[in-house]
Amino acid sequence: MAWAPPPSAAQLYRPNRFVSLPAELDPATYDTSPEKLRAETERLAIRSRLKRQYLLQLNDPSAPAVIENPALVRWAYAKSQNVYPTFRPTPKTSFLGAVYGLGPLLFWIFVLKADRDRKEKRIQEGKLKRSPFSVFF
Amino acid sequence: SEMSKDMMPGPYPRTPEERAAAAKKYNMRVEDYQPYPDDGLGYGDYPMLPNKSQYERDPWYEWDQPDMRHNWGEPMHWNFDMYIRNRVDTSPTVVPWHTMSKHFLLFLSIMLIMFGLGEIYPAYRPVGPKQYPFNDLYLEKGGDPNKEPPTVIHYEI
User: Fold this and answer.
1) What is the interface size between A and B, counted as CB pairs within 8 Å?
2) pLDDT at A137
3) Which of A18, A42, A94, B9 could hold A78 in an S-S bridge, CB 3.0 to 4.6 Å?
4) In sequence order, what are the residues at sequence separation of 6 or more whose Cβ sits closer than 8 angstroms to the Cβ of residue A83?
5) Residues in A touching B52 (Cβ below 8 Å)
6) Among residues A7, A6, A14, A10, which one has the least CA distance to residue A30?
7) Among B65, B64, B33, B37, which Cα is nearest to B49's?
8) What is the overall mean pLDDT for chain B?
């Protein structure tokens, strides 16, 4: 009878949302293939081009006071101004909007109302004295 | 700022040409560029980078910004401000996460159950009320010194 192969170290590790797989266990970081090498060289080319632009601005004697990072500008724009144009009401977004928008409101309405009703009932029954300064009960 | 509109993030790319243009805009390879799924949640064409914190990046490489471990012009993660080194850290742990959480939850639950049982079924030696000297501390409790205090005897012979 053939047993299944024992679980690999990466499978035993079980990376999740909070921890990632260490590079030593990740088969994608092992022996590189020509495609991976080409991909790495392309990434290196992009990175060196950007680094050259940055270092030219950094070591410029007539330097601008602040070297603007387009990636940062794009990130800030995407998070603040690009959300409304790209938002689209779908079943999922409407449901999430209802849950996050109305959910806490309704929850606290019911909790506070129930609490105050219970307190009023206890005051009417005489177990609790109505405080002299309170406006509500 | 001075950047033109086509340098800024835009809507979700539908055609391959739009994808290539978006990858070029974000300084990424076309094969690497993967936008967030088009759920209408407001991501647009922003690239979906792996959810790894800045802790995982090589500490010995000469980054342009060493504290952020970020290079100039490199696309930033959507949650970049969460993944900085002062905040969330997703670096691999020595012990796997499921083992750690199992140990912790087991310990916590066993301790809580034992404490709960101790509250429900308390176990201590028999105790009686505390006995004070000097006629139950008559003078210290403000008794009149001219009057005779009531005698309090705590023993039996």
Assistant:
1) 120
2) 61
3) B9
4) B42, B44
5) 20
6) A10
7) B33
8) 87
Asked if B74 contacts B27 with a C-beta cutoff of 8 angstroms, the reply is yes
CB < 8 Å to A41, chain B:
none
Contact B92 A22 (CB under 8 A): yes
Over residues B65-91, the pLDDT tens digits come to 899 899 998 999 999 999 999 998 888
Mean pLDDT, to the nearest integer, of B12-37? 89
Q: How far apart are CA A23 and CA A26, in angstroms?
A: 5
Under 8 Å between Cβ of A73 and B50: no
Residues 6+ away with beta carbon under 8 Å from B123: none
Residue-range domain boundaries for chain A: 21-87, 89-128
Assessment of whether the complete model's pTM goes beyond 0.80: no
Residue B1 has pLDDT above 80, yes or no: no
- In three-state form (DSSP H/G/I as H, E/B as E, the rest C), the secondary structure along A104-134 is HHHHHHHHHHHHHHHHHHHHHHCCCCCCCCC
Q: Which residues of B71-98 are buried (b: 16+ CB within 10 A; e: fewer)?
A: bbbbbbbbebeebbeeeebbebbeebbe
DSSP state of B54: G
- Which whole number is the average pLDDT over A64-69? 85
